[in-house]
Design brief:
Low-confidence stretches: none
Strand content: 25-35%
Structural class: alpha+beta
Order of helices and strands: EEEEHEEEHHH
Helix content: 25-40%
Distance between the termini: 34 Å
Radius of gyration: 18 Å
Shape: elongated
Largest sheet: 5 strands, antiparallel
């Protein structure tokens, strides 16, 4: 609830052979800072869209643009994507908020798996150190995670730049 303006994501796996090794990103003003993607993976393709608008409408637009029929879709995935900086306080009481819960997603790519694994690992290590008697382990974790290059001001500026792009 502290991520004031999360994006929503909708993705699908397509049964289609594509060995091009080219990942495509599509920026559309109507996605309000989001984008669409096309990632070939040999015998299948991962496509999706993230944004703050009507994802069903824009997903259909994307399928049409790529000449993909809905029958090619073999599975769906999606969810809420934090699109801010980490929450103000992600360590408190008996809680360490990591991953999406802590507001950790890459500001530009919106990728969350790496951020979840990274913050989870670092949180577990800090908690282990804290329980072993290191009283400063949790405060070091806070400053360490906030200073990570993935959440840098440069990446925040890149996110804001992408959000201002129009269709041209």
């Amino acid at each position: 609830s502290r991520n004031i303006d999360p994006m929503r994501g909708l993705g699908a796996k397509i049964q289609r052979k594509d060995t091009s090794n080219m990942m495509d990103f599509y920026v559309k003003a109507e996605l309000m800072g989001g984008y669409a993607w096309y990632f070939p993976r040999g015998d299948e393709v991962n496509i999706g869209i993230a944004g703050r608008s009507d994802l069903k409408t824009w997903f259909r637009w994307f399928l049409n643009r790529l000449h993909i029929k809905e029958e090619e879709i073999v599975s769906w995935h999606g969810g809420i994507v934090p699109d801010s900086v980490p929450i103000k306080k992600f360590i408190g009481g008996s809680v360490i908020a990591v991953g999406d819960c802590g507001g950790f997603s890459h500001p530009v790519s919106k990728g969350g798996i790496y951020c979840a694994m990274f913050t989870g690992r670092e949180g577990a290590q800090a908690l282990t150190d804290h329980l072993s008697g290191d009283q400063k382990a949790l405060s070091r974790l806070d400053s360490y995670l906030r200073s990570h290059s993935g959440f840098s001001q440069m990446n925040i500026k890149r996110r804001d730049f992408l959000a201002q792009m129009d269709d041209e």
